[in-house]
Each structure stands twice: as structure tokens, then as C-alpha cells.
Amino acid sequence: MTPLGEILIRRIAATGPISIAEYMAECLMHPVHGYYTTRDPLGREGDFTTAPEISQMFGELIGLAMAQAWVDQGRPSSFVLTELGPGRGTLMADLLRAAALVPGFRDAASLHLVEGSPVLRTAQAQALAGSSPNWHMTVETLPDGPLFLVANEFFDALPIRQFQRDPSGWRERQIAVSDGKLMLGLAMAASYDTLSHRLADTGPGEIVETCTPGASVAAVIAGRIARWGGAALIIDYGGWHSRGDTFQAISAHGFVDPLAEPGSADLTAHVDFEALAGAVRSVPGTASSAMTAQGVFLEGLGITARAEAIARRLSGPALDSHVAAHRRLTHPEEMGSLFQCLSVTPASAPPFPGLGP
Ligand code: SAH
């Protein structure tokens, strides 16, 4: 068992089972043993790869779309440019390079990154050395002003709770200890106001997930955009509605048991975009886009033309890997439809480029 596993086993033995949310938060962000606290998990040698690490086209197209959204809102002369969970800083570096083609955008932007991992902050400082980033632990401390924000694979890392439907209510799935090992168990049945709408579309034994931190982050972002203008683009794997158990652990590019090595594997859950859009809708003056597949979004932004332009300068293995990267980002059997996009804009502003209302 990992050192964090020993800590959690002792704690559960002393004070009782913990929620999946508490377990996720400890495993990912424990100050000493957390998965993100202790490593850079990205890339071929790491545990997983993300869209910006697959191709520069991803960040470039998002940069141009963000700059277009800034133009559409009258080019505010100073604004807060933010990324949530910027990983190695690759997306933001590609975004800034492409958006610099739009006169005035770079000079108007001050860069603010929300990042909990000290290791990844160091990587971001290197990738974005010329752009004087400021770091935050949460969106709450971002400065006032128009907010242009991107979050790729951030919301899937936020802690979820799981509830299993039972004839007499919902039973929360919890992490308990049995025979000195971590295991999943079920709490006593209870009724939850926040789940009453799920009685209509679930049957006994079915599992639903909630992610309160995700909804609160979405509401804070929407509140800022309602007040000062701006746009947020959220990209992640998930769908419109949480249904079933999507709690998963990834290590060395494969699925592993989420309870086997606490702190050593990435823990995530699919993002419920309906819940994020609901949180946005609760803020008057903002609009969320239709949830749109990543492949459709990137095609709308012109990825094929950009891919062809880059391909003209390549040959041999470099060309092959570029063609594979284009396919990987857009094809429905790869990341094209597993990943979905949602934007937040002021209700009075034009829709975000590539995303319909
Ligand atoms: N967006 C990057 C990295 C995705 S990995 C990319 O696409 O490559 C998830 C990122 O979110 C990491 O940078 C991780 O450290 C950060 N993160 C996860 N949970 C967080 C939390 N609760 N608070 C702040 N940052 C968090």
C-alpha cells in the first residue's frame, strides 16, 4: 500500500468511511503525497496525454477563437486571461502565440493560472516565461475585469460523489476499510433534494454522480462574465447527464483499480455538462452554448485547413505523426466525440466561435 493509502486506512479505521469526493481530493491534491502534488503526469512517459500535448493546432485554434471572442466584445483594453489546470502550459503557450496575430490582444491580457500542483507550476513558469503569469489556488481570487478563460481536462479532476438508487432513497457510495484494505461500500439510504429530479430517469440500483465543486466553479465564472464580460471555454470528456459509474483511475496510459494505489494514479470522472450549464443558467445575464463534440468544434474553427498548411512543411515520420494527431483530436472514434465543449458568454454577446447557441 502507498504511504497515502496507509494514512487513509488509519483515518477511516478511526473515524469511519469517507465519500468518493474526499478520497479523490486526498489522492489528487494531498499536500505531501497527492498525485498532482508530486509529479508531472503528462506525456508518453507519464500516465496520460492531453489534446494540447498531441498537437499545437489545439491551442492555436483556441487562441484564435478566444481572440475573436475578445474582438466580438469590443476589444476590452485590459482583461484577465485565465486557464484552469494548465498542465505543462502548452495550451496557453500555443494560444498566446496564435492570438498575438490579432493586434492588441496580447497587450490587453494579464495572465492568471489556477493551478494546485507545485510541480506543474514550475513547468508552466518555464513554458510561459515571457508572459509573467500569476498563480491562484482557486477562481475566487482572480482579479476583477473581463474574463477570458479556458479549461481543458480540469473539471474531470474535481471530486465527485456517487449515489446508488435504492427502493427507500439513495445510498452514497463510500470508501471503507475491510480486512485492512480499502473497499467500496454503501451508506444508509437517505433522500437528497439535489437528486429528486433524477427519480424520473433512473431505476433501482442505478448510480448517479454529482460534482458540487464543478458547479460552483462554473457559477463563479458565469458571475464574473455577467458582470464584466468575457468568455469561458470548457473542454472535457463527459456528456449531457450523469448516468452510471464513471469514476476511473489511469496509470501508464491504462485503466487501474481506483483504490489500489492511492496517490499514484490519476483519478477522474466524466463531466456532467448539464450540471455545468445549469450552474451557468442560474446566473442572470449569461448564456451557455450547446454542448458540442470536440471534433465538430475543431472542424468549425478550421482545423483541416490548418492541418494541411502544417503538412506542406513535413515529410516522413513527422508527417505521419501530424496526420495521426489531426485524426486523434477530431475523429469520433478517438477524442472527437468523447470530448465535449461548452462556452459561457454574456447573453448579449455573439456566441463563442465554433459553438452554436
Ligand atoms: N489542461 C492541461 C492539464 C490537464 S491535467 C492539459 O490539457 O494538458 C489537470 C490539471 O488540473 C493539472 O494541471 C492539475 O494540476 C490541475 N488540477 C486538478 N485539480 C485541481 C484543483 N482542484 N485545483 C487546481 N488545479 C487542479
Number of structural domains: 2
* Class of secondary structure makeup: alpha/beta
Strand content: 15-25%
Q: What's the rounded overall pLDDT mean?
A: 96
The rounded Rg comes to: 21 Å
Q: Helix share of residues? A: 25-40%
CATH architecture descriptor text of the largest domain: 3-Layer(aba) Sandwich
Topology-level CATH name of the largest domain: Rossmann fold
Distance between the termini: 49 Å
Bound molecules: S-adenosyl-L-homocysteine
Description:
This protein has 357 residues and is α/β, with parallel strands linked by helices. It has helices spanning 3-15, 20-29, 35-38, 51-54, 56-72, 90-99, 105-108, 118-127, 212-228, 273-281, 294-300, 303-311, 316-330, and strands at residues 18-19, 79-84, 109-114, 134-136, 147-152, 161-166, 169-178, 181-190, 207-210, 230-239, 248-251, 254-256, 266-268, 271-272, 286-288, 292-293, 339-346. The strands form three sheets. Strands 2, 3, 4, 5, 10, 14, 15, 16 and 17 form a nine-stranded mixed beta sheet that branches. Helix 5 packs across helix 6 (90-99) and helix 12 (303-311) runs antiparallel to helix 13. It has 13 helices and 17 strands. The chain folds into two domains: 3-24 and 160-209, no CATH class; 35-159 and 211-253 and 264-346, Vaccinia Virus protein VP39 (Rossmann fold), CATH 3.40.50. S-adenosyl-L-homocysteine (SAH) binds next to helix 2 and helix 4. S-adenosyl-L-homocysteine is lined by residues 28-29, 36, 42, 50, 52-53, 85-87, 91, 114-117, 120, 152-154, 157.
